[in-house]
């Protein structure tokens, strides 16, 4: 998988550069999320702009990241989700679980 | 509907790297639906997902030692239906006993079959002597 990790203000921004997250690469995504979280980052934004397909294992990997960070009282946010991908979150009602933003600017402008 | 009958039989190595290929065939077939009036983008995604989930299940769980190297999938497009069959040689399972996901306490697994059932019109799993078949039908 191809990732880009950068720091914007107090947020770690992980951009996933693959078009597809499925059972072939979701384990790698989980491992990388765990690595980031265990390194002490506790405000993570995952940008999914380039992801046009996600399967159940991909959703599972993101849910894993969310749970890991929630256990550390951190924030796990998703941004730039493509419409078809978003419909997977809606169908599984994961829109109630994740903090979902249109883009990074929306996260930054919603800071307390 | 006025699409021609199309039959695609695929046998791929039992490896997750081929999920993209299998899913892409599903997406591509949507372009052949001449008279389909529904949301083509949504249907393309659904077929990609259903083929990906069903094939991944076989790769992960459902083949015995003798058949562990390949997975067979057939896609049959007829006038008003798309029929997908995914074959396995595992112990099989009872489709009716697979629970729906707990949406209030979501877990990492257990969503694949839910997607297939939600998006398609009929899902059956038949155990036969030589193999098992997951048959998925989408009315067009």
Notes on the structure:
The complex is a heterodimer of chains A (112) and B (140). With 112 residues, chain A is of the alpha/beta class. Chain A has one domain (3-109): STAS domain (Transcription Regulator spoIIAA), CATH 3.30.750.24. Helices cover 39% and strands 26% of the residues of chain A. Chain A contains 4 helices and 7 strands; from the N terminus they run βββαββαβαβα. Chain A has helices at residues 26-38, 56-71, 83-91, 104-109; strands at 3-8, 11-16, 20-21, 43-47, 53-54, 75-79, 99-101. In chain A, the strands form 2 sheets. Chain A has a 5-stranded mixed sheet with strand order 1-2-4-6-7. In chain A, a hairpin with a 2-residue loop joins β1 and β2 (11-16). Chain B has 140 residues and is an alpha+beta fold. Chain B is built from 3 helices and 5 strands; from the N terminus they run βααββαββ. Chain B is globular. Classes of the chains: A alpha/beta (112), B alpha+beta (140). Chains A and B meet through α2 and α3 of A and α1, α2 and α3 of B.
Helix proportion range of chain A: 25-40%
Strand content of chain A: 25-35%
- By CATH, the superfamily of chain A comes out as STAS domain
Indicate the CATH architecture of chain A: 2-Layer Sandwich
CATH superfamily of chain B: Histidine kinase-like ATPase, C-terminal domain
- Return the CATH architecture of chain B: 2-Layer Sandwich
Q: Could you tell me the mean pLDDT of chain B?
A: 91
